[in-house]
Amino acid sequence: MAKGRALRDNLPDAYERCRYGEPPHRFNLHKSPSKLQRRAEKRGGPKTVGKTKGGLNTKVHALTEALGLPLKIHLSPGNDHDSKHALELLSDLSTSESYVIADKAYDSKQIREYIEAQGWSYEIPPKSNAAEPWLYDQWRYKERFQVECFFQKIKWFRRIATRFEKLDESFKVLIFIVSILIWLK
After folding, report:
1. What does the CA dihedral 164, 168, 174, 177 come to, rounded to 10 degrees?
2. What is the pLDDT confidence band of residue 6, given thresholds at 50, 70 and 90?
3. Is the pTM of this model over 0.70?
């Protein structure tokens, strides 16, 4: 389009048709998004959903205290390994003496070194294929059932068990509400 010329000069027949009652051709001259695009933007957001064998899935990682009451919650895609998110959970924990009890999925040298650097001790059983297996207290490890009980309690709520929420924020808020109910119980 030449400088200084109006759009009306370039498209005179469309303006003439409008003036005389004929429907004009559809012209999208501006860059505003359509209604569907706006709705998609509104619903968009971080979604930690990963593909697994069973379909789309989200993992809930929880840090609980000795009685199974939740201290910190973290979401990750279902296809991520558990050990990737362990340091993020443990980073905000500020106690001088603690026992970290975790299952075999958290058996990595980096996690164990981080726990020892904080002055804590851990009860993490070695994987069956570990090159240098270590000893762990099996009686203390049995206390891990408290975390499993926490997950069982939050799965009582159907909306969390089936994850009806699409966005992470709303799903995490529901888990927080259920966690508050567990604390108040």
Report:
1. 180
2. low
3. no
